[in-house]
Design brief:
There is one protein chain. The chain has 129 residues and is mainly alpha-helical. 66% of the residues lie in helices and 0% in strands. Helix 1 packs antiparallel against helix 6.
Length: 129
């Protein structure tokens, strides 16, 4: 694998969005990929266990702020898509005291994965080691 071509960066970024950490694994950065991907997966699972729910980017009745929250959640890639497809974490569980914290964990997992995806892109194009 030759690091430094534009195609490597785009592929690594796309893989990094689809599955957290896989972009780094594809570039040969196994330790970095496992740690960064593991953090996103852990935050996502903890967010669901705390009763957090996922926002959809396609629900116009929910208001403008839900689009922002949906964008954050979408950053988790296939975790988000799989959860939405199976109905896991879709229903709001406001009765749980930890539900709002769970929502934030899910959003931060998505936002963190965007940063990890950009890191994989930078490594793939040779801007970073």
């Amino acid at each position: 694998m030759t690091v430094g071509t534009g195609a490597n960066g785009w592929v690594a970024g796309l893989l990094g969005w689809l599955a957290p950490g896989v972009g780094h694994l594809w570039l040969g950065q196994v330790g970095r990929g496992l740690v960064l991907g593991g953090v996103v997966w852990a935050m996502y699972v903890v967010g669901l266990l705390m009763g957090g729910h996922l926002y959809s980017i396609f629900s116009p009745e929910a208001g403008l702020l839900s689009y922002v929250f949906g964008f954050c959640d979408t950053g988790a890639g296939l975790l988000y898509v799989g959860s939405m497809a199976t109905g896991i974490g879709v229903e709001e569980q406001a009765k749980l005291a930890t539900a709002e914290y769970g929502n934030v964990f899910l959003m931060v997992a998505g936002l963190l994965n965007y940063l990890i995806m950009l890191d994989a892109f930078d490594i793939g194009v040779g801007r970073k080691r």
